[in-house]
Structures are given as C-alpha cells and as structure tokens.
Amino acid sequence: MAVSLRGCDELIPREEWQRKLARSEATGVPLRIKLGLDPTAPDIHVGHTVVLNKMRQLQDLGHTVIFLIGDFTSMIGDPSGRNTTRPPLTREQIQANAETYRAQAYKILDPGRTELRYNSEWSDPLGARGMIQLAARYTVARMMERNDFHERYKAGNSISIHEFLYPLMQGYDSVALKSDLELGGTDQKFNLLMGRHLQQEYGQEPQCILTMPLLEGLDGVEKMSKSKNNYIGITEDANTMFAKVMSISDTLMWRWYTLLSFRSEARIAALQREVQQGRNPRDAKVMLAKEITARFHDAAAADAAEQDFVNRSKGGIPDDIPELSLSGAPLVIGALLKQAGLAPSTSEANRLIDGGGVRVDASTISDKGLKLAAGTYVLQVGKRKFARVTLA
Description:
16 helices, 392 residues, alpha/beta, Rossmann fold, 47% helix
C-alpha cells in the first residue's frame, strides 16, 4: 500500500485494493496492473514516465504489468481535456509511433516481465454488432456528466458521436485484459471509472483505479508538454537532459523527487532535512539529475553530463562540440551564427547579441556589426550551444 500510495492523487476504492493485495499475498497469484497509452506522438517525455515509474515499482513487487498500446483507440482520439475534436491519426502514423513507445517504455519497465498488448487485438474483431452491444451498456446522460463533454455542449462546441466511443473502448480494454488495477493521469479518471463499470456489466470483479498527478514542466507552472516547450524528452542526449533537470526550481525539485525518483521516501525526506539544515540544494538537484540521466542513458553518461555542466557553468568549453567549416570571410557575426546553426535567423542572432548571450572565444560580443576574418573560432550561444567554426 505504501508503494501504491506514493505520489498518487487518488486510489479508488482504497479498501478494495487492500483486499486484492491481501488475496494476492495469500494465494501467490500476482495482480494484473494495466496502463494504456495512445501513440499519438512519436516520443515520450519525462512527464509520461510518472505512471510508468509507478508501474515499475509495482512490477518490482512481483505483480504482472500490462503495457497496453492503444493502436485502435488512437484512431478515435482521446477527447480528454479538449474543447475541439482531436483529428484521428492514420494507421501508418500509429504503427510508427507505437514502435517508438514500446522501445521507450522498456527504458523503465522490465521487458522480460511486461505483458505488451495492442487493443486492436480485441477491438477490431468486435465489429459493428459488438460495438452496438457495447454502446448499449452506457447512457448518454452518464456520458454527458463528463466535464469536457458537458463544457463543450454548454459552450455550443461540437461533439462528434465517435468521441463517445473512446471511453467505452478504453473501458472495454479492462474487460478484455481482466485487469485488477488501471493507472492513469488525473485527466483520465472518467475513462478509468468506465473500466470499472463495464467489468461489472460483463460479470467481472471491477478494477481499482490509481491516478497520478500531471507533472509540472521545467517552468514549474504548466504541465509538462512539448507544445509548451517545458519538457525533457527521454531520447534527448545526456548533457541536455542533465542541464534541463538542473534548471528547475529548488521547490519543484522535491515534487520531481517524489514522482520521478526511485529513491525511497525515507531517503528523500532525510535529504530534504539536510537541505533545511544548511546543505546546498544544488547537491540534491545534482543527485536527481544524475539519477534521471542514468536511467535513460547510463551511469558513465550521467557522470560525463555532470562534468559538462560544471564546465559550462564556469564558462569553460565542453570537450565534444560540433566542428564545421564555412566560407565567405569576412562574415558578419549574425550571419555566421545562422550558418553555424546556432541561431534560426540573423535577426534572432542579433537579438541574442543584444541580450549578451553570444561569445566568441569566451569573449562576450556586443557589436552586431562585428565581421570575423578567416580563422578558427569557438562560438557560444547561451549556456549550452557551442560550435568550433573554421571560416575561410
């Protein structure tokens, strides 16, 4: 129960889950724990791993975890939290994304002890007759209690009939898999409860549901999202990953520890007390950054990323930076930054110069009209972008 409750938002119903755990312990039969993700984008970010971490924790206790890829439900599109209809993906897009999801999920879950399933296995054979029979097990009135549907209807925004099918199909996944527990974000509560309802309709013992909070992104305000550019992609290079973790606030760090670290709560509490008693919070943040980086790379890459971060913070030049050759000397600094790939445009390069964010051979540049003659230069933009350019 302690592992289940760590960092969770809700466990519904708690008493039922406790009974399931006790029965599992008494019989030696592991519980079936399900997490479904729709492959609607090609990559998973660290925010997605909050529920995957919980799966791994329960997997390590000996239970059966089912990583369900929603290749069928992706074609409908999850309406959760949306005020417009989500455009459906093609089967080709879904298949390509599903392959990357599988590979990325196995960076956290133990592949040898994970049941990998695709919901097209039972959804495609359902057919029109089965879909109608399934739809008969829920009412429109209950469906309209869902917040996003209710708000869209009240605002006069359209709701397509196929969107009603999404929670039904996600719930039917729980029937097909006979799950004991389903995990999801807080925005998935309606869909998870649908699984309980449909399992009862089909004569099964209903699953419990465990919702995890949505992880705040690097800004500490909005939930982690690629569209808000406040995310850490789990396929990002080690140096970038480490530096991004180091950029979060000292306050947000502790929430990330609870939701992302595999350290025990007792160890985290002890570390927090040390910081309160005067230890530099940067030490704790380095430990978190190294743990996360090592999880998606390895311990050696995490150590190297720490050293790279130290070098950059001291104004030093990392050992491994891109090298390229350009022609056109003498070249104005803004054009040089654009051609070197350190700025998307000359105007953006000039804006960076105005902000004091551009260095040439460790010297800060303030003159946007500076022309560089033929030679080799180390260009730096911000704290993390470098290039060694030979200009001819």
